[in-house]
């Protein structure tokens, strides 16, 4: 037995005391309690503090003093002076370690009702799991809560909570807990109806006077009812004769998804790399990548001769398998293991890419994609991805205030 394990074993039946303070929050309360404890030479084993609407809850777990009664009297006198409630409870040992099967459960609602949150907690309990901690990730424009859960297989939890999320109208993501959740270093996004609103090929078709027929084919392809490569060729044929200047007009009219700039800006600050991969066109995606500071981009290339679209694409088509291949290539180029990648998309041609990534997120996606992805988001804000990565809205705002975009 090692020296460390002997220490841990000896601490299991060691007398301890839990000091809990509740009261109206104001500066100096925590300092006052700890200063009183400091006079006893006690060892701090654990501590946790939370403030909810001005109400402070502080818990400190300490090695037990020789004179428990006297400490209790001192803390009672302090409580009277600073006008709070303080309890002192004797016990043995440290906190119990979290059970195996650790998960991070992110719950997103607009709004998030008490009934919805109760239902989620109930289903977690049904699996035999325990909620170890709850913290708020965002309060607007959505409410996002994160649960640290232990004691259940993440896959079982994901299945149970996906069904409850549908019943409650909530987005619920379940990820394996632990260190690697914080190490997803490459984000790969679809473009049309994900990074940007709408479909670029339909905007081009509008300029060509062929919108209705192209939009109908796009919808079928995104639902997985048509082969993407064949559908793309058919739609591009409808653009034959369109002046190449229409590409500049379409780019100028593109609207990014709400929160797109925030997502990219925030994660770039943290050292993440970004890639976009699209069944659309490089004449658009290359400009988007340059504008947003995106590291890698891959898309189909429209053939242009004498300033006019020929109705054909150049080279190999970026289709469903092609998107997954691109993700793997981006991961290799960036030195990122696939387990540390996040893929985001909405259509059937994104399915292979979502499956290949460490975390696949269906963003306002077609039913076939929602059913297959690791998790899904049905709110229109692309920066909600940040909450899945453990980044809070307050942290984003603080970073923006410190270094304005």
TrEMBL record:
NCBIfam families: HAD-SF-IB, serB. PROSITE patterns: ACT. Its cofactor is Mg(2+). Belongs to the HAD-like hydrolase superfamily. SerB family. InterPro entries: ACT-like_dom_sf (IPR045865), ACT_dom (IPR002912), HAD-like_SerB (IPR050582), HAD-like_sf (IPR036412), HAD_sf (IPR023214), PSP (IPR004469), PSP_ACT (IPR049148). This is phosphoserine phosphatase. It catalyses: O-phospho-D-serine + H2O = D-serine + phosphate; O-phospho-L-serine + H2O = L-serine + phosphate. It comes from the Bacteria. Pathway: Amino-acid biosynthesis; L-serine biosynthesis; L-serine from 3-phospho-D-glycerate: step 3/3. Its EC number is 3.1.3.3. Pfam families: ACT_6, ACT_PSP_2, HAD.
